Amino acid sequence: MRLEQSPPHARLRWAAALTALAITLVPCLDALGRASRSPARLTPAPGSAPWVMVPDAASAYRLMSAAGVRGCWLVVLTGRWSRPRSLWSRPRPGEGFAAAAARARAVVDADGALFALARDGIARRLDLVMPPAVLERRMAEVAGQKGLAVREGGFSLPYDALERRFSVPDAFAAPREKVVVLVEPSFFQEGAPAEAASWLASRGTQVELGLIATDDGQSTAAQRAAALALGDAVGAAAPGGPP
Amino acid sequence: MTAPPGASFPRSPTASVTRLLIALTALALLMRSIGLGAQVLAPDDVAVGITAHSFVERGWPEPTMWNHPRLRDLLVYLSLHALGDGAWGLKLWSVLLGTLSVPATAALVLALGGGIGAAGVAGLLVALDPLHLDFSRQAINDVYLAFFPVAAILATLRYRARRRPGWLAVAGLMLGLGLASKWGAAFPVGAAAAVVWVEALGAERSARGRAAETTLFLACLVILPLAVYLATFLPWFAAGHDLPEWLGLQRAMAFETATHTGYPGSKRPGFPGEILSPIRWFAAPTWFVSHIPPETGSERMRLLAGVGNPATWMATLPSLAWASKRWLRDHDRAAGWLALLFLAAWLPFVVVRRPIWPNSAIGVLPFAFALVAWAAVRLHSRLPWPVRAWGALAALLAALLWWPAVGVETPVMERTVRALVSPAALEPPPSP
Prior knowledge:
heterodimer; A: 2 domains; 36% helix; B: 432 residues; mainly alpha; 18 helices
């Protein structure tokens, strides 16, 4: 059987067209990703401080969720690590998947807030800054876990598809993009900078929006007072108030 | 003399081939769709629905199988919107692609010169296999791998026969969809493409022609599939991620896939007898049991037990041995092709050192059964009665094992399943 081969130029035309299509797709998707980040939707008016007081991390989640924030790089200054229960909901009979997801969103608490922020596409990366003693405890908990990468002053440990970096303040490397910062009161203990806002600025952190929680379930009265003091210092909007 | 592969591809299917393919498709669809709407959803099915919503709407590939590619999420999300949140919304694509893998397997045997008899038997074996059937009725996407790679190879062989670049582009599209289902699609398609590419270069007289051929292969079977694969991550990009982060995700997925030992809350490795080394897939009964939690008002755990038909699965390795002998001794090209495709699909799992769930065997089945069908039809002319006896046994087992695969429990079926499946696997799984 004689094969009827296409001439070389016809084959090259096909190759060029397909390659052009593929090459065009790459920057388009990259641009789509960068354009989809929308932390600025919660940014206060020009000239005002980019800081807001919130009761706790769950309120921060609800605030950002309601405002349609997507794809932000979230920096969390905290002195605790929670173990949230499963935050997925199996649909009840006749309920459907969308309604089950809405039900799961409604029960987010301070312990599950970070996971929920990632699950709902609000935060795409997490940077957790912890006082040295807290980080040491956390490191002992995760020793030997798959994917753990230890470095000076911290470690990286992704949770499935979510990138997470854990650092002590001295080892924190500021992201090169504007970030959303969540400060929890338990952060304020030995080894943590008291002037968190100016410390963030000194590390080169570009704070697009800062959220200061007045409680996190594990903080002392002194730590909660320190959080309120930070809010005063940066001129944060009142708890529950609009940014 | 056996016709060269691809060259035997009929210019237009004869009426008998068309009738065969239509009949196989109808049978496969019937077997996969009967009672599907009434079949109780397994935990995996529900997790697939939640994950489809989560990924498409928020770019988060959880709660199940985050380390696998994401075509399933896109497809299931579409079907959930079109058909609602029930069984058909979740499983439409598994039913369709599981069904299409039947005529595709038959067409593969035809394209490789195996003849219409072997094509018909191969299609029947896939259509009636209880484990293939089970996965065609589940929302998880393993059965996609029984179609896309076969379709890609068919299109590549079509290109080999016709030399029209469009067919190679179709092959690339199918390969891309296969890769976007699971990465294992690359192996059999890669093997077939390599052979066709070498043959195509040999047929070229000029260096320019060889360069054009190589460029076309690269564009169609490397660049295009990668672009299709990349495009299926659109919702992930829409969640704010950029290209470097996508590359990081791929590294994380590869790491997890290479070291995977189960998802939290799902069945764990060591679940008695289920996770066989792939080297035993075709030497011992292979099965997958889904435990369905009791519904309100009932205390009994229900089971969906998909058991690969032992008569056909265990005929694979003898068929491989015979095909290899025919290839090496008699230069039987159809035998060589069938052996090559099966080995390319199967061996990558054999060499992996982590637990492999029987799900992955579904993507190997079309190539295994193409081989078995070819051997059975060839052998039938020499030993008709033993082959007929084997066929009768295979039909009997397929009939017995169809029921537990679709969730119908009767004492006879249960005894059959218990004889083939580890009794421990039929007990409720431990709590996560």
